[in-house]
Design goal:
Order of helices and strands: EHHEEEEEHHEEEE
Oligomer: single chain
Length: 201
């Protein structure tokens, strides 16, 4: 598993979201869609769709390497079963706002995934995520500027085709705060079900 998504965050993390490969152009819904398709294993672990030992329990943000248009942040994902996955989060700044670009497993960023987008799934499933990032800059800026150093999953909720993950952001220069990551499923033409991070609150 090369790709990892945090969302969120909100989150996402996740963990997790994508954006354009350059700070000179607007965030790309196609790039974001590819990232989420490539990150299904970690998205499911965040949402609680896997066996419990693989559920994401926390994400820690390391020292930020930042320029005026790009931020590179090492991350550590811990699961309920005690496993640790290390990766690199890259964010870009466009029109004075920060956006998630990619999250890659390992110690070096590799950019947006080139995975094939499944038939029957379009960029409409992630367009809201770009809007959410633009409207929740306090959270993204908090990560980039060291205001939040840890995201902890505090609860999960679900019904047939939606998921909700409650999170707590803490450990940095800002006061601890809480939020929620929302996701919903979309079935491809071949019948396979995919999950997509749609919003953060």
């Amino acid at each position: 598993m090369r790709r990892i998504l945090v969302t969120t965050l909100a989150f996402a993390l996740v963990l997790s979201f994508g954006a354009s490969a350059s700070a000179s152009v607007a965030p790309s819904s196609t790039g974001m869609l590819r990232e989420q398709v490539a990150s299904q294993e970690m998205i499911n672990a965040l949402l609680g769709n896997t066996k419990s030992s693989l559920h994401v329990s926390s994400i820690t943000f390391g020292k930020v390497a930042k320029t005026t248009s790009k931020a590179t942040i090492p991350i550590t994902v811990r699961t309920k079963g005690g496993s640790i996955v290390r990766g690199v989060l890259v964010m870009y700044r466009f029109e004075k706002r920060w956006y998630f670009h990619s999250i890659t497993r390992g110690t070096k960023p590799r950019g947006i995934s080139t995975v094939k987008i499944p038939a029957g799934i379009t960029t409409s499933v992630v367009k809201n995520a770009i809007v959410e990032q633009r409207e929740h800059q306090w959270m993204l800026q908090g990560i980039v500027n060291g205001g939040y150093k840890k995201l902890t999953v505090t609860g999960r909720g679900s019904n047939w085709n939606t998921r909700r993950v409650s999170v707590r952001l803490s450990g940095g220069t800002r006061d601890a705060t809480t939020g929620r990551v929302y996701a919903y499923s979309k079935t491809a033409t071949n019948g396979k079900r995919y999950w997509f991070i749609s919003s953060l609150k």
